[in-house]
Bacterial bifunctional deaminase-reductase C-terminal domain-containing protein
Amino acid sequence: MQILARLCMSADGYVSTPNGWPPQVVDPAHGPGSHGIAEFLETCEAALMGRTTFEPALTNDFWPWPDLRVFVLASERPAGTPDHVTVDSDPARLLSALRAANRGGDVHLIGGPRTIETFRELGALDKLELVVLPFLLGNGLRLTDALSVETGLELESSRTLDAGAVEIVYRVAAGGGVSEAARAGWAPASQRD
Ligand SMILES: NC(=O)c1ccc[n+]([C@@H]2O[C@H](COP(=O)([O-])OP(=O)(O)OC[C@H]3O[C@@H](n4cnc5c(N)ncnc54)[C@H](OP(=O)(O)O)[C@@H]3O)[C@@H](O)[C@H]2O)c1
């Protein structure tokens, strides 16, 4: 089982619109299975997310994850949550439940950034997949509003999707990212001690 975070982001780096929707929903190319999600989900058996990302599904016209077991990190079970959804306030306990239920498939860590950071801190984030959309938003939520900039990334693959989107798949590396000192110093890597 691998835990795979996959998010869409605008070309200027926002993972939500200014009013809090995932950016792909304002893309004219958005639809069932769009942005490579159908292919991605072929190896997934579970969806994992935080309460903020989960709650809009409760008032959707259709259940967004008909083929996946659903796990939600939330301090309280949101009203109207179907019985088959596992909700827990403790990330380590939720991870144990996820592992106990696993039948060998991968887990789609849908988001948002706070929940991705939570599982990264637990050492449970295997990959970060970004789908960069061909438009600018100018404002919204950034991935690194919550996800640590110390997250180490190793490029695994990239490809162009339909309608001008680009998919970038990173393995999350144990070694960490660009250090705070390097970023603060603004020195090119070649000029650092
Ligand atoms: N671009 C994309 O593809 C994409 C995908 C998903 C989401 N999004 C966007 O991301 C935004 C939401 O992201 P977010 O980071 O603000 O929220 P989130 O991760 O969806 O949910 C945050 C909630 O999860 C629970 N939680 C997270 N970490 C926890 C921890 N360590 N311990 C206990 N509970 C924890 C808390 O629930 P309680 O408050 O109940 O304690 C917290 O308020 C939305 O705007 C959504 O549209 C974008």
Remarks:
- The first helix runs from residue 37 to 41.
- The pocket of NAP is lined by residues 7-9, 15-16, 20-23, 49-53, 73-75, 89, 91, 110-115, 118, 141, 146 (CB under 6 Å).
- The radius of gyration is 17 Å.
- Strands lie at 3-10, 44-50, 69-73, 86-88, 106-111, 127-133, 152-160, 166-173.
